[in-house]
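Q: How do we represent a protein-ligand complex in a form that can be generated token by token?
A: Start from the inputs.
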Amino acid sequence: MAPEIMKGLKDVYLDTTTSSFIDGEVGKLLYRGYNIHDLAEQSTFEEVIYLLLYGSLPNRQELADFDSLLRSNRRIPDEVIQVLDLVKNSHPMDALRTGLSALSAFDPEVTDNSPEATIRKGIRLTAMGPTIVAAHHRLRQGLEPVAPNPDLNHAGNFLYMLFNEVPDEETTRLLDVDFILHAEHGANASAFAARVTASTISDLHSAVVTGVGTLKGPAHGGAAEEVMKMSLEIGQPENAEEYCRARLESGGRIMGFGHRVYRAEDPRARHLRERARALSEKMGQPHWFQILSYVEEEAMVPYRSRGIHVNVDFFAGCIYYLLGITDDLFISIFALGRIPGWTLQCVEQFEDNILIRPLLEYTGEMDLSYVPIEQRS
Ligand code: ACO
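Then emit the structure tokens for the protein with acetyl coenzyme *A bound:
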């Protein structure tokens, strides 16, 4: 009897987790039991990293100590800067993947897969990730990398290293919220891929590198960049109707819509929608938000009954663009936010490990006769 094929592993439960809870029917997301809305409105990325890695909210002292630990781990070895210089013409995600991989050569605990060491490594990778992305971005422009600034928080320091300018509080908070919203999301493709790597009892650096490679695709983390490209092609709100009709009628997809798990609106989108609206008005460029609104409120309305709504990536690209961030950096920002989530998934995988190794049903030919090369036509 032919086995049942669970194509794309859709709706398959792979294991249990205490990392995040997703109810796709109602659009609910919890990190370690806490609602994403409360975290986006009241928390900080530093606190969310702590929550994910240690399982509970920190008190003031714990948060201050944790924040200092992150700040003190931001510098990357000169050798890694040299590697980034060698690959400066590559896509920022490829450079991030290479840089994170290179860090393994300098991490004294690289092969220690105990929960404690994995968390320590995850903290280092979270702290150093922005330094890699910013250094590569500077190098590819022929500029010197900017050293991390310990007076700034995680989001503010990243913007500072990118632009060599201390960002204002509002801009810093925008990126802080964006990092919170991207920090963890169950068995999504990149976390699953990271878990597969961890399940071979490889190591966290390898698993995070796997996660970065998997996140890169437009069906996953690449959607924000594609949404902004679409907005730029549309140009003005009055062109949106024709553009969407042509795209959808030819079988194309509108990026930033649809999700494997959510049948209701992705709860993370709400926080970026309001911020994209406010920012586009503040910057005197309201047409970008108007284009997105048209797509959401008009073109994609018929898709709602099929469970296709905006996802977290729909408004993110507009925010990054208005902050002056180059479009090929968008996915890297997602990846920087997700390192704590990948770390937690690996801690869980290592703690109760089983090799992840599904089956494929063979549908090719059987028992063919081997023909020596000189007898082949
Ligand atoms: N625009 C138009 N139609 C869509 C869209 C979309 N964005 N997404 C899904 N559909 C349609 C498909 O055409 C398909 O229609 P059909 O049944 O008539 O063939 C149906 O909805 C189901 O689509 P699948 O691709 O089978 O659904 P799946 O759950 O595998 O896909 C995915 C989820 C890959 C995210 C998909 O919705 C998509 O391609 N979206 C655009 C890319 C995107 O925004 N990715 C970011 C995801 S969120 C994240 O990673 C953070």
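The pocket of acetyl coenzyme *A is lined by residues 8, 219-221, 223, 253-260, 308, 311-313 (CB under 6 Å). Residues 115-140 form the longest helix (26 residues).
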